[in-house]
Design goal:
Layout: H1 13-43, E1 44-45, H2 49-76, H3 85-91, E2 102-103, H4 104-132, H5 134-156, H6 173-180
Parallel strand pairs: 1-2
Pfam families: Ferritin (PF00210)
Organism: Nocardioides dokdonensis FR1436
GO molecular function: ferric iron binding; oxidoreductase activity, acting on metal ions
Length: 181
């Protein structure tokens, strides 16, 4: 990370650089997630098509909004947000979403794992931000609350009446898609 020319009052440059790094990781994840959700929106088929198709658009819009908030916080702290596709691909620690045209259940099963990863990463950031920057921590908490709600929407389609998930034990999106399908 380049040396900052400034940051917000009361925050050291070292703390600002760490917070910016956490924000940038979430910015890449938010950009990836909203594109993945839109991909699913375009490629979902089956008897529950319209319900899932329409359920995803508000999620896409919310996550796009998260990306904007994350980028603006980076700039507020004196950093320069990176939102290019090449930078996202180079920096990400997760695999490309690999499900193409598939049934609603298959996509929802895969999205269950996607949301698990994104939410876990946000929660890890929250733990670290408590000491570094309560303002950014609050942003992460707000995003996590919405992501957990969206995850519940996904999981409600995968749950049986006893509360079991069809994706239980799946370790890859393809396994989750197969289990849910």
């Amino acid at each position: 990370m380049a040396n900052l020319k400034y940051t917000v009052p009361g925050m050291s440059d070292a703390d600002a650089e760490r917070v910016i790094a956490l924000l940038q990781e979430r910015l890449h994840a938010a950009n990836d997630l909203h594109l993945t959700l839109k991909h699913v929106h375009w490629n979902v088929v089956g008897p529950h098509f319209i319900a899932v198709h329409e359920m995803l658009d508000p999620q896409v819009e919310a996550v796009r909004g998260f990306a904007d908030e994350l980028a603006e916080r980076i700039a507020t702290l004196g950093g320069s947000p990176t939102g290019t596709p090449g930078a996202l691909v180079a920096a990400r620690s997760w695999e490309e979403y690999s499900i193409g045209r598939a049934t609603t259940q298959e996509h929802l099963g895969a999205l269950d794992l996607v949301y698990q990863g994104v939410i876990s990463s946000y929660r890890d950031g929250i733990k670290e931000l408590g000491e570094l920057d309560p303002v950014t921590e609050d942003m992460f908490i707000g995003h996590t609350e919405k992501l957990e709600l969206f995850h519940w929407f996904i999981r409600a389609h995968l749950e049986d009446k006893a509360g079991g998930l069809s994706t239980e034990g799946a370790t890859s999106e393809k396994d989750a898609a197969r289990s849910a399908g």
